[in-house]
Design goal:
Number of helices: 7
Radius of gyration: 18 Å
Largest sheet: 6 strands, mixed
Shape: globular
Number of strands: 14
């Protein structure tokens, strides 16, 4: 049974402010399905946004709260404040925060009985190199070719999940009113962040305590049977150069998607 009260969604944060999530102990997992292109925050006011949120994420890690963020649905391209696409690769924040677990996107394929077949990188899944943040220590063990691309900066995503609208999931929406309530197909990396949150809620329950900040653990567990390694696909979009899925960690799907039953047990047992 999943303890959903562990997962904090944006609607629960409204009215509490950024720090209110932790002040009021609303949960041990935070899922964020929002983001702004990093470059739109390269102003004095934008830099203060970085400071405020980074202070919050650091406190979350200290209090053993897991934080996820979606990597975006524009591939390697993202809009400026006027909606125009930057003509060079960009990433979004808060996914680019080194203190957040960024969730990229895949296209998931299964047979008619629902058995997993394979995944490829979703062409619109956000991923790339941060222009704001230096490379965190947990990414220092990545391969030499990856290090050349990162050039001392934070790379995203860390992991991935099904996001393609044509291979989407169904969710039941009731807030639309009785006449419009029903099942709707949902796609985008916004669906991956809360689903990863649900998986970690299971890990917390199995461990008997919060597993907390995930990234150091995920990078130490990479290159294993705990993930579906995505090796096909790319995220170039809108004429902007993108990145290609490769073996191991890459800038389209990170370590890949979870082999959930094995990953949950490994995270719970590693504490």
């Amino acid at each position: 049974m999943l303890h959903m009260e562990q997962v904090v969604r944006p609607c629960q944060v409204a009215g509490h402010g950024v720090s209110g999530t932790l002040d009021h102990k609303l949960g041990k997992i935070i899922s964020q399905s929002w983001g702004a292109t990093e470059n739109t925050l390269f102003t004095p006011a934008g830099q203060q946004v970085f400071v405020n949120f980074e202070d919050f994420y650091q406190r979350a890690a200290e209090e053993h709260v897991t934080v996820f963020a979606s990597s975006g649905d524009f591939g390697s391209s993202n809009p400026d404040i006027n909606g125009n696409i930057y003509p060079f690769p960009t990433v979004i924040y808060p996914a680019s925060s080194p203190q957040v677990t960024a969730v990229g996107g895949t296209s998931l394929y299964a047979d008619t009985s629902g058995k997993y077949l394979y995944e490829i990188a979703w062409f619109a899944g956000g991923g790339g190199v941060s222009q704001q943040f230096a490379q965190p220590g947990y990414q220092s063990s990545l391969s030499a070719p990856v290090q050349q691309i990162l050039n001392g900066h934070r790379g995203i995503p860390d992991v991935a999940y099904n996001a393609d609208g044509s291979t989407s999931i169904l969710i039941y929406l009731s807030f639309l009113g009785p006449s419009a309530a029903g099942y709707y197909a949902i796609g985008g990396t916004s669906e991956g962040s809360p689903q990863w949150a649900g998986i970690i809620a299971d890990a917390n329950q199995l461990a008997g305590h919060p597993v907390g900040f995930l990234n150091p653990k995920l990078y130490s567990l990479g290159r294993s049977e705990l993930f579906h390694d995505i090796v096909f696909g790319a995220n170039a979009l809108n004429g902007v150069p993108g990145y290609v899925a490769t073996r191991g960690w890459d800038l389209t799907t990170g370590w890949g998607t979870p082999n959930a039953s094995r990953l949950v047990r490994e995270l719970a047992d590693s504490e």
